[in-house]
Structures are given as C-alpha cells and as structure tokens.
Amino acid sequence: MSDDVKTPSSAGPDLRAARVARTETELIDAAAALFLQQGYVATTLAQIAQRAGLAARTVYVRFGTKAALFRRVVDRALVGDADPIDVAHRPRTQDAMAAPTLAERIDALAEVSVGIADRAGALFEVAAQAEGLEPELAHAAQAGRRATAELCQAFWEHAAADGLLADQADPARLALLTDTLSCADTVVHLRRAHGWSAPAHRALIVDTLAALTRLAP
C-alpha cells in the first residue's frame, strides 16, 4: 500500500481532532452570538448548546464553565482566528517592532490595536459587566491589561534601541500614553460614551503618537 494512503486506524485520530475542533468552533460561535445579544449573566450554557445544536453535556465537557467559554470567545476575537498564536507574535505586531521607520511602526501598532478593538470591542463591554461577578474573568481582564502595557513598553523600547527616537524622548512615558490610547478600558469608553468607530480610533492613535514623536501625521 502506498505510504500516502491512510488506513482507517491512522486516519482515526485526525478525524477525531477535526470533529473536536469543529465542535469547539460551533460552540464558540454560538456563545459569542448569545453573549453579545443577551449579555453575560442572562446567557446560559444550555442556551449555547441549544443554539449550536449540541447536547448540553458537550459544553461542560469542552469548557467546564461559562467563564472559561467566555474567555475562549474573547481570546479568539483578540486575534481573529483559532490559531494558537498570541497578539504579540502575530506578523503585524512584529512589523510594529521591526519596520524601518517609526511612522511605519506606529501605523502597524495602530492597526493591531484597532483590529482588536473592532473584533472584540463589544465583547470588552460584556466583560466589563462580568468582571465583578466572575473572579476568573476579572483575573483574565487584568492579565490582558498587563499584556497590553507590556506590548506598548516593548514597542517603545525597540524604537529607542533602533535609534528611532529623539534623544529627549522618554520611552516609559510614551509607553504609558500608548497603553492609555490602546487598552480595552479605553475601547469600552470610546464605544459607550462617544460611539467611536474603528477608523476614528485608529486616527486618534496615529495622530497622537505622531505628534508626540514630532512625526508628520
């Protein structure tokens, strides 16, 4: 038999893995829709299973708790797919750390930040409502805030190390301001208080950082 033809036994694990991935995608899709439609508190695991056309037990087996499932929903929205690569290691984030000019880096960073806001902004609002109820979600939200702050710090440290900042520029201060512009709490505020779109948020980030570093917008 040819080596490239799988026997039923060798194909089994691949088929099972594909089924598991498909089931998880269906549950995450259903959960995202219901969390956005009903909010965190009103949404139950039984409703999510029903919407996905699966047995309620399947949700518990795959995710255990509603908080764990909500975290998966948010994690997928942050990066835009199910690949196990976090934001910091995505290609556009790497552009933000290594592009030839500071203007290109700022543009890439703004694209990353606003992409997250566009995909996950509404979920951030749901998360803000749930943090006080679920310690697991409060912990995850705080970890997300730290990750954003660390990314902003790394951005300006790379820029300074590569000689892209004026001597008088303060990378720590720039990192703090960038974090303030990009963090989930700002996304929620801009959406709730001002109804801002992703392009408007992107312009705010680019224009502000360009001005702070004396770049033309």
Count of DSSP-assigned helices: 10
Count of domains: 2
Q: What percent of residues adopt helix (DSSP H or I)? A: over 70%
pLDDT < 50 stretches? 1-9
| Main beta sheet | none
Radius of gyration: 21 Å
| Top CATH class of the largest domain | Mainly Alpha
Give the mean pLDDT: 89
CATH topology of the largest domain: Tetracycline Repressor, domain 2
Relative strand content: under 5%
Instruction: Give the end-to-end Cα distance, rounded to a whole number of Å.
Output: 64 Å
Annotation, overall tally of beta strands: 0
Secondary-structure arrangement, i.e. CATH architecture of the largest domain = Orthogonal Bundle
Oligomer type: single chain
SSE pattern, N- to C-terminal: HHHHHHHHHH
SSE class: mainly alpha
Using the alpha-carbon principal axes, give the shape.
elongated
Structure description:
With 217 residues, this protein is an all-alpha fold. The protein folds into 2 domains: 1-64, Homeodomain-like (Arc Repressor Mutant, subunit A, Orthogonal Bundle), CATH 1.10.10.60; 71-212, Tetracycline Repressor, domain 2 (Orthogonal Bundle). Helix content is 75%, strand content 0%. The longest helix has 31 residues, at 8-38. It is elongated, with a radius of gyration of 21 Å. It starts with 7 loop residues before the first helix and ends in a 5-residue tail after the last helix. The model is unreliable at 1-9 (pLDDT under 50).
